[in-house]
Amino acid sequence: MEDIHATEFCLAFRVARMHAFFKRTKRLQTFAFSTFAHMHPKSSLTPLVICLICCTFLLISSCKKDQKDCPAFSENLVPYIPNESRLMLYNDNGDSLLFRTDVYYKSEQHTMTRNRLSVGGTGAKPYCYASCSLSSSLLSSDANQINYSINVDNEADTCSLKLSVTSVTPSSDYFLRSTSLATDGRIFGDTLRLSNSTPTTAPRFSAVTIVYGRGIVSITDDVENCVWSR
User: Fold this and answer.
1) Are residue 201 and residue 88 in the same domain, yes or no?
2) What's the whole-model pTM score?
């Protein structure tokens, strides 16, 4: 009987201690909340929230200004520069002129970002270009090499075609043409004839013909006095 009373007394004592602990904890919580409310009254929380929202909005806006989504190279221009691994041309005597074109590139849709690591932390504004190129490998030992590209300036709405031809005869000939993107579709026409733009009086290749859907179809050779075509 004495053991039972002792056990009940111990339980009652523990319950009393726990009750006192929770009362003291509740008083501390009430004090903390009242202190915070005194330091940050409700009237001052609203401007703080508004300030945080404005800062977030400005941050997001500045991030958008630092990025620009750029379109892929237009599929309407691809037929001017088809992907092919070799360009074989023949003259009237049956001789051949070979250009290996094993490097092909066509830009896809991408996002340009301002370079914040530049001097001053501002960098250039994002600018959109799109391009497609067909060329001989820089590692190639072939004497005959070609570098053909079409570049689109999406900001200025212009398109430029560039072609350079290097051959066994010490010669590097260049052909250029630029036009506006105001028109859709075949902006260079069905057939494009280019004259040599190299500042020299005696280029080897004086003219090039490009056909929509076929690419380069002929090159006029002033040294061999013939036209290479396919």
Assistant:
1) yes
2) 0.66
Give Cα 18 to chain centroid, integer Å: 66
CA 177 to chain centre: 25
Total number of domains constituting the chain? 2
Contact between 145 and 103 under an 8 Å Cβ cutoff? The reply is: no
Cα–Cα distances in Å, from 98 out to 87, 115, 202? 6, 42, 22
3-state DSSP percent of the chain in helix, strand and coil, to 5 = 30, 35, 35
Q: 182: domain range?
A: 70-229
Same domain? 77 vs 52: no
Question: Are 213 and 227 contacting, i.e. CB atoms less than 8 angstroms apart?
Answer: no
Residue carrying structure tokens 């340009």: 112
pLDDT digits (tens, 9 = 90+) for 39-70: 555 545 466 555 555 555 444 444 445 788 89
Phi, psi dihedrals of residue 129, rounded to the nearest 5°: -125, 155
